[in-house]
Amino acid sequence: MEQAQQIRIIKGLMTHLDRGTNVDAGGQVRNPVSGYTCPDRASREWDVFFQDHPQILGLSADLPAPGTFLTSSDLGKPILCTRDNNGEFRAFLNVCRHRGTQVETRPRGEKRLFSCPFHAWSYSNTGQLVAVPKEDHFGPVDKSCHGLVALPAEEKYGLLWVNPNAAGDIDVDACLGGLAPELAAWQIGTFNATGQTRYDHAMNWKLAVDTFGETYHFNVLHKDTLASDLYGNVQMYDTYGRNHRMMLCLRNIDALREEPEEEWHILRATIPVYFIFPNIQLIFGRGGPTLVRIYPEGTDPHRSHSEISFYMSPEIDLIEMDEERRAKYRDIQDRMEGFASVIEQEDYVAAASSHVGILSGAQEYLTFGRNEPALHHYHNTYRAALGLPPLERISN
Fold first, then answer.
1. Average pLDDT over the chain, rounded to whole?
2. For residues 344 and 357, what is the distance between their CA atoms, to the nearest angstrom?
């Protein structure tokens, strides 16, 4: 991020703190609760956003070397991602062309040849069918026509993009809507993967997304956890097409007031949270990024899950460090995983409670306040993508 941009954001946060203000969306809006419970809406979402839309399935670090692979079933179909022997990122339907069995069942690993566990038809990491056992008994097979079905895949700005529709396409820069230069500056492709966890939740997937849409709740829901490090109900906020960037305000920002502006660094004052449409949160801390991917369980409006992945700076080599520095970076890793635990045990618990409340019939809509601009923006862009009118404004 350019230094001028960092200074603008930090000064903006300081001004909000000094004046007791926050980013103002210009009014309140109503969001109909039917959008969280309607089966027909859930079916449209699944088709539009998760069956024929570019999806981020990880960062470059998830395929750290030629010959590595990862698998995913988050989009309702088995997907195999590989880094081939030349280092190129590829994606395929993880389906043997003989009888449809999944070729690879492990979540990730290193393998240059994938052999179907049913009859051992074998495929290279470029998707080519290379071996059919006892082909003289089976009959001739045109191997050039029976490779794994390739999916559109692109690695850009350290992000692994896949379109689950084999006939679809990917335009990464168009998807990012102006965020590309800033994401490029973070050098996401240089980080190392350190772990991953999954949370299943009894709620609509958009309620999980909504938990990342405001800091109004910090001093209440997170009073014993995040509020010790972050100021609540204050942020800086910018939109980039369908995407946005929220800058959470660290209490450490006060230490910068006595320092020259040219020495300020954004990660000493804030936690940047990037939302990438339709379901991604990319969060930067001093140790490295955390990637949160939120999915519905197919067309079920009442079930969803999150995949949360952790990454650390390439300079961090615990083996080569002295004990003091090693302890410091272990603490950073613990904080990253602790942040994910807060999401599970506090944010997602509250959101699941919201889902129960929505199903009770107590109200026809949820209200998003003036201090919750990310919720206004996300739901209006989501609705526009489905051809729906914007949210109803109820006050200025």
1. 94
2. 19
